[in-house]
Amino acid sequence: MSVTERITNFVVRTLFRIILRVDTSPLRKIPSRGPGILLSNHVSNLEGPLLYVFLSPRHATALGKIELWQNRVTRFFMETWDVIPLHRGAVDGQAMRRCLAALAEGQFVGIAAEGTRSRNGILRQGQPGAPVLATRANVPIYPIAHRGLHNVASNLRRMRRTRVSIRVGRPFYLRKPGNGTITRTDRARMVDEMMFQLAILLPEHLRGRYADLAQMTTDYIEYAQVS
What is the pTM for the complete model shown? Predict the structure, then answer.
């Protein structure tokens, strides 16, 4: 870790402790070493930095939309944290290769399950990127659900700290029963099963289309052994 990153992480952690009331102890469930995919809900541009600095010194990277490199301030953080740029709206082969390389090196890779922010904190439909990456790399997925970050801006205007909760679920692999070629239908079912693993960590009113847990299946999920 470079001196620049150490200083940046210290400053960002300090700022979070000032503006947030957050218990980060659930992140201890994440192993000290990878590889693995950190799958989270996406309600703010703050959850990536929050998870990154409080998971440190674990070796981790994440996917970030390419637009974040167009601003000098956000580009500084992206480059300091070695975030992988992602061109949204199309298959980004280069980003996929970089993610696979990071996983092969034993890193964690953070992915926002929904692909775009939920402005009200309600879980949106999942996207197929995580299942493709997880099945190609054969690594566990760690579901991380947080709530409260979408209230930060309004609370800052009132000079209030924001209460943020973090929950970490059971790690799991995505695998097709009986193996075989993974089809588009398989991926769609994997996405839903993956998203339900996030949904069960959230209160019902924030689960969105995954609110009815009676529809949850685990046909493509193999829970990892936790030591």
Answer: 0.93
Q: What phi, psi does 29 have (nearest 5°)?
A: -70, -15
Which two three-digit tokens encode residue 204?
């019902």
Upper half-sphere CA count for residue 171 (Cβ side, 13 Å): 20
CB 117 within 8 A of CB 40: no
Between CA 104 and CA 136 the distance in angstroms is 11
Domain range for 218: 3-223
Q: Which residues pair with 166 in a beta bridge?
A: 146
Q: What is the pLDDT of residues 75-124, one digit of tens each?
A: 999 999 999 999 877 677 899 999 999 999 999 999 988 888 888 889 99
Q: What is the CATH number of the domain that holds 51?
A: 3.40.1130
3-state class (DSSP) for residue 20:
strand
